[in-house]
Amino acid sequence: MPTHQHRGLQPREAGLLALLTSVWGASFMFIKVAVDDLSPVGVAVGRLLLATATIGGWLLFRRGRSGVRAMVAGIRPAQAAVFAGTGSAAPFLLIAWAETRITSSLAGILNASIPLIAAGMALYLRTPDRIRGWRSAGLVVGFAGVALVAGGDLSGQPLGVAAMLGAAFLYATSAMLTRRWFAAVEPQAVALVQVAVGTVLALPSLVFLRVDGVPPVSAVAALVGLGMGGTGFAYFLYYSLVSTAGPQHAVAVTYLVPVAAVVYGRAFLHEDISAISLVGMALILAGQVITSLPGRRTPATALASAANMARLPENA
Fold it and tell me: Full-prediction pTM beyond 0.90?
């Protein structure tokens, strides 16, 4: 991957960032629209199937069968299963189930806790890229925001909040596994493995599928938008942004997606968002900013940080 000097976004890159934010931010709205008619299992499995078809089809078109096989060569099946289980199959099911109980806006805000959870795990495990010194204060600020958002809904649907935070923890776990196991694998191949193996793992859950009658067009369209757009197409947008603007700009989408989720939920689903939730979201994003600020680096931590930034941020 080319090295990019620190610079501002060019107009085309800013457009890519805005498009990626809108696509990923809409994922929570799509889930909310589809889940009532297709059930959480139908949404999760359908999303994985559509994402696999989108990513796999594109890579086959660009690389051919031999090229795709070469991309995934050397990936151990057991590692792929654990990675896909924590990175797609289980969290997709949890998020879809959570949105039967909480708003899409709240789901988007809680999903923003993923980088904080990942930073906390790295600190606990003392990995080379863990935060140090004053940047640790970002965890306090961020988790205070999570507690504020979650606490504001505990009188309503605590199980939905718990499911959403469980999905965020699994996403953070998956991100750490990616860095440990797949650092030498092309990011596009990692994305393909995540959704393809995740599909296989999620298929048995279809025994719990309950769909009454033919789902409406709106639910099917939302599922297509979620699988092909919010999962498949979004990956390619992200990697395009990494290759042109560099990972330091591409990861900015992590801060923008929860804001977009709130806007979509309010504008299209007429969801109410409390002042407490908005304050909590601000604290979560502030915590992310603090923990991601530059600190003192050894050569080892600089190398680890560069590799980690190029990885795909986990989003709904």
Answer: no
